[in-house]
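Hi there,

I know you've been waiting on this one. I reran it after we fixed the sequence typo, so this is the corrected version. Both the input and the resulting structure follow.
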Amino acid sequence: MRTSVIICVYTEERWEDIKQAVGSVERQTRPPHELILVVDHNPGLQRRLEEAYPQARVVANAHEKGLSGGKNTGVEVATGDLVAFLDDDAVADPGWLEALEEGFQEPDVVGVGGRTEPVWASGRRPRWFPPEFDWTVGCTYRGIPLVKAPIRNVMGGNAAFVRKAVAEVGGFHSGIGRSVQGRKSRPLGCEETEFCIRLAQRKPGSVMLYQPAAVIGHKVSRQRESVGYFLSRCFAEGLSKALVTREVGAAQGLASERAHAMKTLPLGVLRSLGEALRGDVGGLGRALAIVAGLAWTTWGYVLGSWRVRSRS
């Protein structure tokens, strides 16, 4: 089994992050078949990477600007049996790739996602920040299975897929995530959610697997530790989910979200309030953040659904 590791990059402002991400791939206990760096319409960064990493394949995004186009470009040039994606601001544990590959032992498995731990810029989790909402900073959140298990969709910055299966269903679609409005605008997402659901719909019986042994650390900037970013990300997720349900239907597009909202979040509020009563003043903040996060996400979905219907 050969795995092509793909890292999509777009700005020289993340040069040190990119170096650390590449270094973590080069230190894997099971080396990749190849490392592909896809540069998102930035010739200067591409030249710098070509000089710094002659052992890697450095290619330009051949599609629409954005993460989906970059991923599709990486898949198109890859020659491995599997394609694994790592965020450009993440660091993979040495056994990351080996753990991902072990998830493909069953023939029905077409995608495997790992565990993504937050690396807070301030050195620790903000006291008000609920683990149930770690998805807002691109990390594994409370409510995901604790053991290896089938899931609806993986998280795009720590995942691997059967390369041929990605091509068969048309790759990642633009028009849902950050590729819509640019990197520095509203923090949209959900490209991988729509892709995983579409893959399962077009290939009945296929399995997406969560593999907690495949661990990466994902850097969370100070800006993303703020309440303002938290609420903005929740609202953007609602907007994105409206676009996802337009593509794949509400039944599957919201199945995991309903379970999370009906079970995990109420338990999170009760847990946080209990912690507050036991003297943890941050518990009250976490309880309020869960309520506010759900409300902002719901409002984003309602507004996004209205926009979709209006455009239709």
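Quick highlight: DSSP finds ten helices and nine strands in the chain.

Best,
R. S.
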